[in-house]
Amino acid sequence: MKIYSYELQPFEEVTINVVGNFVRGLSGPHRYQMQFDRGAATDFLTGIAYDRDEPFKSVTITNGDTLQRVEIAIAMGRVDDNRLVGQMDLNGAIGILTTAARSVTIHPVQNINAATEVLPANQNRRSAIIQCSDEVYVGSAADGVKLISFTWDAEPALNLVPVSGSVEVRILEELNA
């Protein structure tokens, strides 16, 4: 097995001359395309693997419209990877694998326009991911820190104050069960 890593500009194409019959996308936040021996292109993402019956002699990676680093593994024979790889979007559906005694809560989106307790105190909180649509003060406007997205690794209540206007707040919280 050999790992190949490329920083690809939008729509950039790179051809790797290598013999193999297995390829797996190891990293890359956006969709890209692959061609084997200059055949038909197929969409590829991190975590996807392709195992061909017949060996190929070249792999061509074509990037989409966003700059990204793509890393793939190519081998002769199937390669298994038991690392946990994934991506999360707080605006869409979230699938989370939990182990041991943990639970995950996706809180409803809150619209705040004044000082608001967005997360109550909880001694069982492991952490919370907070995503705001605009800057907020954490704590108070007088002595708080201005942030947009952050992790709250604390048990006390979380109070946010919008810097200006109305702010949407999304929270993903992980608790000890």
| Tally of DSSP helical segments | 0
CATH topology of the largest domain: Jelly Rolls
Helix content: under 10%
Radius of gyration based on Cα positions: 22 Å
Overall shape: it is: elongated
Report the portion of residues in β strands: over 45%
What is the average of the pLDDT values? 86
**CATH architecture classification name of the largest domain:** Sandwich
CATH class category of the largest domain: Mainly Beta
N-to-C CA distance: 41 Å
**Main sheet attributes: strand count, strand direction, barrel closure:** 7 strands, antiparallel
Output the structural class.
Answer: mainly beta
Q: Give the helices and strands as they follow along the chain.
A: EEEEEEEEEEEEE
Counting DSSP E segments of at least 2 residues, the number of strands comes to 13
The tally of domains stands at: 2
Tell me what the structure shows.
This protein is mainly β and 177 residues long. The chain folds into two domains: 2-75, Sandwich (Jelly Rolls); 102-176, Jelly Rolls, CATH 2.60.120.770. It is built from no helices and 13 strands. The protein has strands at 2-8, 13-27, 32-36, 42-44, 49-63, 68-75, 102-106, 110-112, 116-119, 125-138, 145-152, 158-162, 167-176. Strands 7, 8, 9, 10, 11, 12 and 13 form a seven-stranded antiparallel β-sheet that branches. Strands 1-6-2-5-3-4 form a six-stranded antiparallel β-sheet, with no helix packed on it. Strand 10 and strand 11 form a beta hairpin. The protein is elongated and about 65 Å long. The mean pLDDT is 86.
